[in-house]
Write a structure and sequence with these properties.
Strand order of the largest sheet: 1-2
Shape: elongated
Strand content: 5-15%
Structural class: alpha+beta
Helix content: 25-40%
Oligomer: single chain
Amino acid sequence: MTRARERLVLSGGINLKAGGSNTYLQKLLESLGHELGALPEGEIKLDHASMTVRRLERVTASAEAPKAEMESPLTRIDPVHFAQVWRERAVRCKNVLATPL
């Protein structure tokens, strides 16, 4: 966060299960005199900066599209190509290890 010069993106939310008072975003806003639950959408002017608030609705598992049958990554591997890549890797490794520092 200390390296952000022009834009810093923070995401967070209100943790309804735990009371919602311990998130980093809430502590930051409290130090600036704001409450996360009471922030209006849009741009908010702070001392020497501004903050844009966007609210997103919670997505639940029931709202997600059904997942397609997952293809195993192993079915897409060409064993001949795979072996060739590893042989080339072994040669490069051997050459690197033989090179003086």
